[in-house]
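Why show two proteins at once? Because comparison is the fastest way to build intuition. When a single record is shown, students tend to memorize it. When two are placed side by side, the eye starts asking what differs. So, the first record is below.
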Amino acid sequence: MNADGTGFRRLTTEDNIQHFYPSLSPDGQSVLYAAFREANVYEIYKLDLNDSTVDRLTNKLGIATSPEFSPDGQRIVFTRNNPRTDQYQILLMDQNGDHLINIPQTLGWDTTWSPDGKRILFASDRDGLIQLFTVNLNGRQLFRVTNLPAIRGRSDWSPDGQFIVTYSGAAWNREVYIMNADGSNVRQLTPSGGNSQGPSFSPDGKWVTFTAYFDHHGDENGCEVYIIRTDGTDLRRLTDNDYCDYQPRWGP
């Protein structure tokens, strides 16, 4: 849909298969997403917005989720969960699925790129509680970003590289937080009481989109997509459906 909520249209058509973790390409011409294939197997797919063709990019790696194009559109980062060990690896591949590698000695999920394409932001419980970390593509210079209770994962990096948004809190009491990219100056961005989660920056860095339940709190199917300015003002709802709208990701 458009950034003001208009132009809402459906992209995937298989009603009996889960499709989630959508992410637009930097040129706005395609969408990455994860979809169920069979028990303990989710694949990464790329959908062309011009002709609706779909290419499968992975092949029975396990539970592959949270794909995202690099800022130059040439590579993809995603998470692979091994259901036998319940470990989450961070993997990289070319935009067509070739040259698959993992980031060495780095376990985590809900990955996103830094704007310069040199680092990956991800969630991990490596220190006990789930927190956000960044790491180079070669697995070096691991840095812990956050010190928040009950972080869930899905986060984003502002286009200018200065800020990070994430969400934290107990079930039905989650809030979106914004902070400097080094984890300093943390503040709650969303109004309390919306169970807000899954944030993403606008391309100009002035807005954040997220999922919340302000209008249907307590209803599992009541989540809608909202936007808010990065100073916490001008909250707007974009969707109004009888099912849960979640995991919004802003595109160009």
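Second record. Ask yourself what differs from the first in the token line.
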Amino acid sequence: MQLTSKTFVKPESKLTGLFLENPSLMLMMEHFDLSYVVHDKTVTQVCNENNISLELFLSVANLYNGFHKTSHTVNSSADIMTVIAFLKRSHYYYKQEKYPEIRNLTEELFHLNETPEIKLVGKFFDEYFEEVTEHLEYEDQVAFPYFLSLIDHPGVFSAGSKFSADEYLDHHTDIESKLIELKNLLLRHIPVKNDRSTRRRLLFSLVELEYDLTIHSTIEESILIPGIKRLESGMNNG
């Protein structure tokens, strides 16, 4: 599950202790392509060893720990590339791990409770995840390549492009809200019939997906896009 503590992550914080308080930080480490077997190392030590911006890491870690406002924006090419790689790995997690997990649980729920309402849950989630996949593919195939091109041509590439950070924000949809509807269906409108364990596991998985998607959107809108806009203006700091 997600948040179990509201410890504010600091440079001197020991990561193993943070993982024990909030296991979702281990998923964050996977998105950063880092091992969460870090022994007794601090945040600063892990960032230095892996050439990751300390400020960026702290901003993301504190999002995972429930501090949902961040004033940090990426201000270097390296940080932009790190954030985009982080987001792309999260896309893989949604499509290859979380969606199959949730879909299997909806199938299991239907076998235990063969009602039209349960079948509707599976259909609702399939349609929802089609929208999510479309959103993720738009980022992978359109937005991220444009952002990476700006690194080599700050303030130049955008001049002849039909795409921009503003257009990306206009396209940016709220892909978390429909999960609330699905949770409400399971909690309020579908009778329980020998399926409590499966329903609980399904709800937990939906909560985990919603939580990570919310952070994913915050990183894009509050950390990445302001940095991209600076690149579009030719204000890259290198």
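One difference worth noting in the second protein: The chain has a mean pLDDT of 87.
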